[in-house]
Amino acid sequence: QVQLVESGGGLVQTGGSLRLSCAASGLTFSDYAMGWFRQAPGKERETVATIRWSGGSTYYADSVKGRFTISGDNAKKTVYLQMNGLQPEDTAIYYCAARYRRSTSYGYWGRGTQVAVSS
After folding, report:
1. Average pLDDT score over the chain
2. What's the Rg (C-alpha) of the chain?
């Protein structure tokens, strides 16, 4: 059974930093792509960043390029999202998700962690 548990959210001031963690269990990292997504109040969920363990390719939304970095520790089965230069528009619930390599969608989701950036 795949489980994803996020942590590291909180309240920071504009320009601050946070590092989110996603601890995964029940899966083999090399068989999955991992992603961070976020949903702000009244808005649709959006992709923030993704990483494929096979090949290590990453993707970032334009809004976070140069500020956020996705990485992972295969041994710890943990994915990280380092967020620097946080802005009020980054305020959202951040979710970790996993996509099996043969799937076209992210089928496993964590419960999310709240990030709030004060101006």
Report:
1. 95
2. 13
